[in-house]
């Protein structure tokens, strides 16, 4: 288990991440701004991307298991997912609708090609 990353303890890293998420500052045209509304981190920030990728990794584990158990293929790049699976369309839609109830901040969209 990792207890330090280049001299920083896990506790310090977690505190820094929490600070970053709660205090969203960004620069636009040479001016610095503090975002006070909206959830999540600042768009385009490397830490926001890392946290989002970690979250999606845990979110997608159930999906991947179901697809692999059905001999399907699952590929993801950032927030785009490509799935090939031989399920009846009705079953796919049922599974898909269930996944859309997992987190109200995540909205999955499907493009089904038969």
Q: What is the share of helical residues?
A: 40-55%
Distance between the termini: 45 Å
Elements, N to C (H/E): EEHEEHEEH
**Helical/strand content category:** alpha+beta
What is the count of DSSP helices, taking H or I runs of 4+ residues?
3
Question: What count of domains describes the coordinates?
Answer: 2
Radius of gyration, CA atoms, in whole angstroms: 19 Å
Mean pLDDT: 84
List the uncertain runs: none
How do the strands of the widest beta sheet line up side by side? 1-2
Number of strands: 6
Main beta-sheet annotation: 2 strands, antiparallel
Describe the global form: elongated
Strand content: 15-25%
Structure description:
The protein has 114 residues and is α+β, with helices and mostly antiparallel strands. The protein folds into 2 domains: 1-43, no CATH class; 56-114. Helix content is 42%, strand content 21%. The chain contains 3 helices and 6 strands. It has helices at residues 10-22, 46-69, 89-99; strands at 4-5, 8-9, 24-28, 31-35, 73-77, 80-84. A two-stranded antiparallel ribbon has the order 1-2. Strand 5 and strand 6 form a beta hairpin. The longest helix has 24 residues, at 46-69. The protein is elongated, with a radius of gyration of 19 Å. The N and C termini lie far apart (45 Å). The model has no long low-confidence stretch (mean pLDDT 84). This is Reverse transcriptase domain-containing protein.
């Amino acid at each position: 288990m990792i207890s330090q990353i280049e001299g920083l303890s896990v506790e310090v890293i977690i505190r820094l991440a929490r600070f970053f998420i709660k205090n969203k500052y960004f620069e636009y045209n040479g001016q610095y701004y503090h975002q006070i509304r909206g959830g999540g981190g600042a768009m385009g920030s490397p830490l926001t991307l890392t946290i989002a990728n970690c979250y999606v990794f845990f979110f997608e584990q159930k999906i991947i298991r179901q697809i692999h158990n059905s001999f399907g293929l699952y590929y993801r790049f950032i927030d785009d997912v490509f799935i090939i699976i031989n399920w009846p369309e009705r079953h796919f839609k049922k599974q898909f609708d269930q996944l859309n109830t997992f987190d109200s901040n995540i909205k999955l969209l499907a493009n089904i090609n038969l």
